Amino acid sequence: MRALTEVSVINVGLERFAGPLKTLGVPVVQLQWQPPAAGDAALGQALARLTNHPRVEAANATAFERYLNANPVLEGVGEAARDIPGMGGNKRVLLHSGPPARWDAMCGPQRGALIGAVLFEGWAENPEQAERLLAEGGIELDSCNHRNAVGPMAGVISPSMPVWRVRETRGGGLTFSNFNEGLGRVLRFGANGADVLARLKWMRDTLAPVLSKTFDASGPIELKPLLAQALHMGDEGHNRNVACTSLLFRKLATAAAEHRAADEATLAEVFRFIAGNDHFFLNISMAACKAMLNAAAGVDASSMVTVMARNGVDFGIQISAFPGRWFEAAANYVEGLYFPGYGPDDAARDLGDSAITETAGIGGFAMAAAPAIVQFVGGTSDDALNNSLLMRRITLGANSGFTLPMLNFAGTPAGIDIRRVVDTGILPIINTGIAHKAAGVGQIGAGLVRAPAGCFLKALAALAERVGEDDA
Amino acid sequence: MRALTEVSVINVGLERFAGPLKTLGVPVVQLQWQPPAAGDAALGQALARLTNHPRVEAANATAFERYLNANPVLEGVGEAARDIPGMGGNKRVLLHSGPPARWDAMCGPQRGALIGAVLFEGWAENPEQAERLLAEGGIELDSCNHRNAVGPMAGVISPSMPVWRVRETRGGGLTFSNFNEGLGRVLRFGANGADVLARLKWMRDTLAPVLSKTFDASGPIELKPLLAQALHMGDEGHNRNVACTSLLFRKLATAAAEHRAADEATLAEVFRFIAGNDHFFLNISMAACKAMLNAAAGVDASSMVTVMARNGVDFGIQISAFPGRWFEAAANYVEGLYFPGYGPDDAARDLGDSAITETAGIGGFAMAAAPAIVQFVGGTSDDALNNSLLMRRITLGANSGFTLPMLNFAGTPAGIDIRRVVDTGILPIINTGIAHKAAGVGQIGAGLVRAPAGCFLKALAALAERVGEDDA
User: Fold this and answer.
1) What gap in Å lies between CA B370 and CA B358, rounded to an integer?
2) What is the spatial distance between Cα A3 and Cα B156, in angstroms, rounded to a whole number?
3) Are A233 and B243 within 8 A, CB to CB?
4) Which of A225, B98, B318, B463 suits B108 as a labelling partner, its CA being 20 to 30 A distant?
5) CATH fold for the domain made of A71-285
6) How far apart are CA B285 and CA B175, in angstroms?
7) What would the pLDDT profile of B241-280 be if each residue is shown by its tens digit?
């Protein structure tokens, strides 16, 4: 935060007015301000109508309470074809991250990942064949979020892939995510070479059976206490998952040995794979967040955001009042730190379903839990703290199940309210990785990105229409 | 920190002078002040002579640099009789925490632990016999610190116990600690029943061989990077060790499976034991700190503290100028949070060698790394931050190998300077467990305790004498 000195000027509006004063040595603070509803008169009226609207308030209280009460547990390991609706019966279907996208408009990493998935499933013999098949519409493509699934980055899930099964035990159903492959050349960044496919096969044929046997013998794992503990250990559940991964590993390794889930050589392979990937837990965190937000979806007139997801071209949100309906705008570019040899010109736009973590109040919203993340995404530890404080201004409340030690155990700000986003112009902060724009290069950095304003403006207009109609 | 309002008075000295002003509604801030050197004129002169003394300054620079450069690695598992000097040859010798203590003046938990160790070694058949043997001087007793060893709480090490072997690779030797037994009824809190002895036997006969085989096959583990990472995950290395334990477990479980250190049933037992004890790493952290401080010991005229240790009766320190020489004062009682059913009347005095962590700049000095610890020891997260800031005032510098995310990655305050302690009256803050005063009840709480001033005053007098003599 900037401190005001004794003699100073606050400049509201055009920044150039501040110039002459600065030249005279007068301290000037530029107020970060923009008119509500982006200065649009019709939207301004819509915002005014929805602000403090009793139906919206009551709906949000219900949606937020359902989110708070949701209880996701990691039930175990499934298979996409068997568990995810509409993926069985030998259908040629692939899921991807973000709002629905057409093949010819997709970003590089997502195309690369889909080609890899076609090869993995054996539907084509080489990348050219796979690309042709995809371009000709020979494969059904759908958004993960349409099937209660989430996937980081390209987010591609194919029928034979193993998936995490997360059950919401207070009446919700199952949510799913794929398995995390680690860093480097991996499918989720669009790589699809022999090494990538071999790893996916090992994950399907060795890792998944061992984990499946382990879970079947040892029983489900409650995810909220695990996430809560990790928030006290420097994780924020999106871009820092080392604590959650380590805590999960302790449980899994012990249970795997105890229940003889495999011979020692196989156990060693499995342990090495999980222990070698600090982001192993990310996909589980995402499925847990999806479960909590599914619980909040479908409350008529609620302005609470229940999905934020990106396909590398567009950023889409859903709100509780309109389950399944997307409000989209062009995805932003991530601002952050690049790995050596890469820069902003190499970056894809913001990509993946992982913003479901911020939607659920962790990730960028819980940055105060993870000050060490600034070494990865840039900024200072005060920025981390201030980001959590800033998100309070656009959220419905705090989640006392996820507390922030640095803020003396205040709950994470949670339940993004599109009205507050439009009113304040403060956009949700997302911690995320940066993918190379070309398929298969992989992660080239990490940083912060904001959700684009357009999604929230469109959702607000739609909600105002709905609430207005009903009132009429 | 208390903010000054526009019109206010700072009152120095007797607090009652502030009373009338407060009555008049004038804001008064009472300065927490005490005269340097506890108001003792001779000590004041000694302090003046040592302050900015070129020989002391140069010696401290050397000692502090040696501490910073020390590189402890966890080499593996040994046996006290084989590895610790003077413990072999079937000698009846037991080590204990803190400065040397005589049997008849020892605290309850330490007596209980020594009785248990006599039974564990088979030198007596029942507790009464063991007690008689100890009372009659039939067992040689010595301080762990005299043998490059450290042990938490009662700190008892007997010849057949397994020990951690930590090697300082920049020219230092080995340091040792015993294995952590977990919480509840354990030897280090003075318990010595059949369950306690059975666990110790299992640790010796099963756990230690498996870990020994694992280390022999997989090689040593660098401890400073592990501790540094844990400080970014909410540990402070004394009273919070969950991150370090989890990170170590990841390495050990993978290596144990990879090198087939045991059959699966035994591996499962070992994994369950380690994964079930968030403090498993504490003893390793202590041996690492001992190694770093050993490197700093023995620099003539240095006023840097190299040992702080308590035997439940006395608190002893050593400074670099006088290796092996104790300066003692009565140990304080810990202020903190008690487990249900216990209170201050049940507590033993401050106990154990674990204050070696604070001596090395972690533990209470690194509380800013572990704001979540206040849920265990009391206070607010601001207190955690402020404790680290306060310790800057009595230390020689910062350890950039151990950084504090909440303080924007400043190094931990390290290298306690007895001159600054005596000058400011600020006493080292220690995070610690609270033992029941009776043998064998176990831990009854946790909190903060200060080192007693007397140790530092005595050490200062001795150093002034030495430096004065040499100058004459």
Assistant:
1) 14
2) 54
3) yes
4) B318
5) Enterococcus faecalis V583 fold (3.90.1710)
6) 11
7) 999 999 999 999 999 999 999 999 999 999 999 999 999 9
Instruction: Indicate whether B111 pLDDT > 60.
Output: yes
With an 8 Å Cβ cutoff, are B372 and A272 in contact? no
Burial label for B197, CB within 10 Å (0-12, 13-18, 19+), is: middle
Cα angle B461-B463-B464, degrees, rounded to a multiple of 5: 65
Q: Give backbone dihedrals phi and psi of A290, rounded to 5 degrees, phi first.
A: -60, -40
Sequence-ordered list of residues with C-beta below 8 angstroms from that of A388, at least 6 positions apart, any chain: A365, A366, A367, A368, A369, A404, A407, A412, A413
User: A215-240 burial string, b = 16+ CB within 10 Å, else e?
Assistant: beebeebebbebbbbbbbbbbbbbbb
Under the phi-then-psi rule, with left for phi > 0, alpha for psi from -120 to 50, and beta for the rest, what region is A432? beta
Q: What is the CATH number of domain A40-67+297-471?
A: 3.90.1700.10
Per-residue pLDDT tens digits for B143-175: 999 999 999 999 999 999 999 999 999 999 999
Tell which CATH classification among 1.10.443.10, 3.40.30.10, 3.90.1710.10, 3.40.50.150 matches the domain B72-285: 3.90.1710.10
CA neighbor of B462 nearest in space, from B271, B336, B321: B321
Displacement of CA B299 from its chain's centroid (Å)? 22
Nearest alpha carbon to residue A325 among A174, A428, A466, A429: A466
Q: Match 């990942």 to its residue by tokens.
A: A113
Contacts of B409 in chain A (CB under 8 A): 375, 381
Q: How confident is the model at residue A442 (pLDDT cuts 50, 70, 90)?
A: confident
CATH 3.40.50.2300 fits B42-58+298-471, yes or no: no
Q: What's the pLDDT tens digit per position in A185-199? A: 999 999 999 999 999
- Helices A54-69, A453-471: axis angle to 10 degrees equals 120
Q: Which of B318, B417, B308, B413 is nearest to B355 (CA)?
A: B308
Of B233, B234, B382, the CB nearest to A408: B382
**Alpha-carbon torsion, ordered A122, A124, A130, A132, to 10 deg:** -150
Across the A/B interface, how many CB contacts are shorter than 8 Å?
103
Distance CA A319, CA A417 (A): 9
* Number of residues that this document lists for chain A: 472
* Beta strands in B40-92, from DSSP E residues, in sequence order: 72-79
Instruction: Determine the number of helices (DSSP H) and then strands (DSSP E) in chain B.
Output: 17, 18
- Number of Cβ within 10 Å of residue A438's Cβ equals 16
* Closest CB from A233, A242, A271 relative to B242: A233
Residue B260 touches chain A, beta carbons under 8 Å: yes
Q: Where are the domains of chain B?
A: 1-33, 42-58+298-471, 72-285
Helix-helix angle B242-258:B282-296, to 10 degrees: 100
C-alpha span between A433 and A442 (Å, rounded): 10
One-letter amino acid of B454? G
The candidate with the shortest Cα–Cα distance to B290, out of B95, B117, B101, is: B95
Is B17 an interface residue toward A (CB < 8 Å)?
A: no
Measured CA to CA, the distance from residue A382 to residue A385 in angstroms comes to: 5
Crossing angle for the helix pair A127-135 and A108-121, to the nearest 10 degrees: 110
Angle at B247 between CA A278 and CA A448, to 5 degrees: 35
For B78-103, how does the pLDDT look when each residue is reduced to its tens digit (9 = 90+)?
A: 999 999 999 999 999 999 999 999 99
Instruction: Please say if the pLDDT value at position B30 is more than 90.
Output: no
Rounded Cα distance, A428 and B79, in Å = 56
Between CA B406 and CA B366 the distance in angstroms is 10
Rounded Cα distance, A350 and A293, in Å: 21
Residue B62's CB: how many other CB atoms inside 10 A?
A: 17
Token match 């397994």: residue?
A: B162
